[in-house]
């Protein structure tokens, strides 16, 4: 039902299949509608797979030679993977995953009934409430799908983390009061929405956009593994942190991490909507001058 990605098909020389996949991805359009983008992807693939620069050290000076990816030794491939153009986006996405869990909602999700009971809600009421909270989360995912093309991933990310920060600080204030207020349900619903609209789905979208073609699959796997490991540790340690800091302290901590994530991603996260693969690569490697390929827009 779902075709392979056009770049992968191009890398295997299956240009007709790449054209069919691109037509499917762009909404079952005609081949003529994607011909320009297909040619840009072909040029991008050639640029990424031929003439790769590999440093060689000699007794007198550092030299560079141009080799193809298939001609590299295992050591050279490993060094090529560790190049800044790969490590910078990989670190950025792993950091994004960290702030997703550190913003709190996903970390508290397995214990949400217990959290609601802490606020004085009955067990039956808590179980009914989490259904509504989850439904609002689904609306957040839907809103992201609708808005991402017009607003961009960067703006949605900042709105999402900013909203999470406001909601967690508000929940901390309610915890400090020691009694349930009429604002509580609205804040929890807003917290679910803000978490789902940005920090939950967008890092997975960025996985397919920020990495260079060579090494993309390995980098995506490393980032995904890091995400699951961070999620496991946050979930495992949550109850210990709550017992140590109480619920008020936990939400203050979540609010601080959300604020820190807002500042970090504001400074380092580029906008990828409407930018070509080449332009995104140049963002992480500005000193390398290469021919611009402007039609392979994301």
TrEMBL record:
<feature type="domain" description="Major facilitator superfamily (MFS) profile">
    <location>
        <begin position="1"/>
        <end position="273"/>
    </location>
</feature>
<feature type="transmembrane region" description="Helical">
    <location>
        <begin position="218"/>
        <end position="239"/>
    </location>
</feature>
<dbReference type="InterPro" id="IPR036259">
    <property type="entry name" value="MFS_trans_sf"/>
</dbReference>
<keyword id="KW-1133">Transmembrane helix</keyword>
<feature type="transmembrane region" description="Helical">
    <location>
        <begin position="182"/>
        <end position="206"/>
    </location>
</feature>
<dbReference type="Pfam" id="PF00083">
    <property type="entry name" value="Sugar_tr"/>
</dbReference>
<dbReference type="InterPro" id="IPR050549">
    <property type="entry name" value="MFS_Trehalose_Transporter"/>
</dbReference>
<feature type="transmembrane region" description="Helical">
    <location>
        <begin position="155"/>
        <end position="176"/>
    </location>
</feature>
<protein>
    <submittedName>
        <fullName>Facilitated trehalose transporter Tret1</fullName>
    </submittedName>
</protein>
<feature type="transmembrane region" description="Helical">
    <location>
        <begin position="251"/>
        <end position="269"/>
    </location>
</feature>
<feature type="transmembrane region" description="Helical">
    <location>
        <begin position="128"/>
        <end position="148"/>
    </location>
</feature>
<feature type="transmembrane region" description="Helical">
    <location>
        <begin position="90"/>
        <end position="108"/>
    </location>
</feature>
<dbReference type="InterPro" id="IPR005828">
    <property type="entry name" value="MFS_sugar_transport-like"/>
</dbReference>
<keyword id="KW-0472">Membrane</keyword>
<dbReference type="InterPro" id="IPR020846">
    <property type="entry name" value="MFS_dom"/>
</dbReference>
<keyword id="KW-0812">Transmembrane</keyword>
<dbReference type="GO" id="GO:0022857">
    <property type="term" value="F:transmembrane transporter activity"/>
</dbReference>
<dbReference type="GO" id="GO:0016020">
    <property type="term" value="C:membrane"/>
</dbReference>
């Amino acid at each position: 039902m779902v075709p392979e990605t056009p770049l992968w098909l191009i890398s295997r020389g299956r240009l007709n299949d790449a054209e069919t996949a691109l037509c499917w991805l762009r909404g079952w359009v005609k081949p003529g509608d994607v011909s320009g983008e297909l040619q840009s992807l072909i040029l991008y693939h050639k640029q990424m797979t031929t003439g790769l620069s590999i440093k060689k050290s000699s007794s007198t000076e550092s030299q560079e030679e141009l080799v193809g990816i298939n001609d590299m030794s295992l050591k050279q491939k490993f060094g090529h993977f560790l190049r800044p153009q790969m490590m910078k986006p990989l670190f950025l996405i792993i950091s994004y995953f960290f702030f997703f869990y550190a913003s709190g909602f996903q970390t508290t999700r397995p214990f949400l009934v217990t959290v609601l009971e802490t606020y004085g809600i009955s067990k039956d009421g808590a179980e009914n409430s989490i259904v509504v909270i989850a439904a609002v989360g689904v609306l957040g995912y839907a809103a992201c799908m609708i808005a991402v093309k017009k607003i961009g991933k960067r703006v949605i990310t900042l709105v999402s983390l900013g909203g999470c920060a406001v909601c967690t600080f508000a929940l901390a204030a309610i915890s400090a009061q020691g009694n349930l207020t009429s604002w509580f349900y609205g804040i929890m619903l807003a917290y679910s929405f803000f978490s789902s609209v940005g920090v939950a789905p967008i890092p997975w979208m960025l996985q397919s956009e920020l990495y260079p073609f060579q090494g993309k699959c390995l980098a995506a796997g490393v980032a995904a593994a890091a995400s699951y490991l961070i999620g496991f540790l946050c979930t495992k340690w949550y109850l210990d942190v709550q017992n140590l800091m109480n619920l008020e302290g936990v939400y203050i901590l979540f609010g601080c991490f959300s604020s820190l994530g807002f500042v970090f991603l504001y400074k380092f996260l580029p906008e990828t909507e409407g930018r070509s693969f080449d332009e995104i690569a140049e963002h992480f490697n500005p000193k390398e001058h290469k021919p611009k390929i402007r039609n392979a827009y994301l």
